[in-house]
Amino acid sequence: MITILDSDLYKFSMQQAVLHHFSAATAEYTFVCRNKDQKLLNISGKVLDLINERLINHRLCSAGERYLKSLGYFTQDYLDFLSDFTFKLNHLSGIVYNATEFNVSIEGPWLQTILWEVPLLSIISEAYGENQKTDTCMCKVKEKLRMIAEYPGLKFADFGTRRRHSLAHHKEIIKNLVGNPNFIGTSNIGMAMEYNIPCIGTMAHEWIQAGQVLAPSLAESQWFMLWKWIEEYKDQLAIALTDTLGTDKFIQDYSRYFNGGPWKGVRQDSGDPVIIGEKLIKMFIDNRIDPKTKTIVFSDSLTFPKMIELYKLFKDRTNVLFGIGTNLTNDVGYKPLSIVIKLTKINGMPVAKISDDPDKTICKDNDYLQKLKESIK
């Protein structure tokens, strides 16, 4: 079944927060392909066909609305808004039928454009993968599951919607994961609903980035957006993302919430996971918090062997979870694309992501990037 819920939970949780706190904001998103050796040739027509087939004119169905309401943190006014929501092609620019090289950007009201990222990336990935030599049998997935079976405490979720090989392959993987004791759920709302498994996710980098324009000051922008998130969700969806302004700045801002703060843990998404994990555990200890009462979610470029390595290293010191993406949903014989769509402007003004991995830093304005770096020293 085609549904607008074939996307990640964090896009909808952020959209609700935008509705309630920043409904007048405008946004601009930029597409980036990090694979310098891979060209996105002759996929524009397929991308546009899939957009029209899967997104345009589709609305939230009544079953989807009931499911979202059952999660317990979506409000009725947001569900009413989402019931009327449709994707609009006039928010996209740069895609041209029969174009040799692919490009796209997204611009419009933040409230309306925020849902484009995940389904559009998955469509681009599928259009690219259609012309590759593939082996989509479940043998590799089953071998990976056997690899971690001896670690019953290792728990992982599917975070692979954005860069999957295809919708059909993704569904087949989820079917093979259901009932596996190491598997705890998926970030994809539609598949969580269809297969009756937990839906997992909180926020993405763009929520923190937007504060660089919307907060009272640049230096306080991350803290302000973390505070707004807690205002919206209290102790629900209380896993914070560490690396929008670098982990050291995150630790400074996040630590202000302890002594009764509602946060349940953090998600690491760039940099050396061992170094970052050690920093986060030290943060808990420095704030007189038992790290075993908090959760660290590792989600950066994971493979199953890397999950085992990190699990063995941290399992006795904190609650460890994993969100695995491309290596799960696009390991079919060709080199997958490393593609992102990132927020680059709010209200016409630049914003940036300063990653723990320099290759993942994104900003279209170098002067602004330098100003931001100075503000968080």
Secondary-structure blueprint:
Elements: H1 9-21, E1 26-33, H2 44-54, H3 62-70, H4 76-83, E2 92-93, E3 105-109, H5 110-113, H6 117-129, H7 139-148, E4 156-158, H8 167-177, E5 183-186, H9 189-195, H10 205-214, H11 221-233, E6 239-241, H12 247-254, E7 265-268, H13 273-286, E8 295-298, H14 304-314, E9 319-324, H15 326-329, E10 339-346, E11 349-350, H16 366-375
Parallel strand pairs: 4-5, 4-9, 6-7, 7-8, 8-9
Antiparallel strand pairs: 1-3, 1-10, 2-3, 10-11
Structure write-up:
- This protein has 377 residues and is α/β, with parallel strands linked by helices.
- It has 2 domains: 9-132 and 336-375, nicotinate phosphoribosyltransferase (Alpha-Beta Barrel), CATH 3.20.140; 139-329, nicotinate phosphoribosyltransferase (Alpha-Beta Barrel).
- 41% of the residues lie in helices and 13% in strands.
- It contains 16 helices and 11 strands.
- A 6-stranded parallel sheet has the order 5-4-9-8-7-6.
- The mean pLDDT is 95.
